């Protein structure tokens, strides 16, 4: 069974870049028709899809975040990563990595990232 685990710093200063990594086990990120996403949830708000990288390496981003979001992968480590630049306190959220596999959604446990000086 595919499992996902987010990792990264829990505190980022305003204007810096937030970097998170999702380590995948139990399956390969290059398996055909597997889809890998980053989703966040600010305190007291709903889930927000940020972007995705597909099994073939193609990337897709939320239009509202596209200008300062980048998703990449390391196939050797079976990981995919998120970079969010020029963060503000409004980017404080629990960040989740997510997989869509055979029409089923799998989630990491999430990591709280606080943007504060």
Overview of this protein structure:
This protein has strands spanning 3-7, 11-12, 18-25, 35-41, 48-54, 59-61, 69-74, 79-84, 93-101, 104-107, 111-115. The chain has 117 residues and is mainly beta. The mean pLDDT is 97.
Note the main attributes of this structure.
117 residues, mainly beta, seven-stranded mixed sheet, four-stranded antiparallel sheet, 11 strands, 53% strand, globular
Q: Please give the count of helices.
A: 0
Distance between the termini: 39 Å
Which percent range fits the helix content? under 10%
Indicate the proportion of strand residues.
over 45%
Biggest sheet layout: 7 strands, mixed
The total beta strand count reads 11
Overall spatial form: globular
Would you tell me the overall average pLDDT? 97
Structural class: mainly beta
The unreliable regions are none
Please give the structural blueprint.
Elements lengths: L2 E5 L3 E2 L5 E8 L9 E7 L6 E7 L4 E3 L7 E6 L4 E6 L8 E9 L2 E4 L3 E5 L2
Parallel strand pairs: 2-11
Antiparallel strand pairs: 1-3, 3-8, 4-5, 4-9, 5-6, 7-8, 9-10, 9-11
In short:
This protein is mainly β.
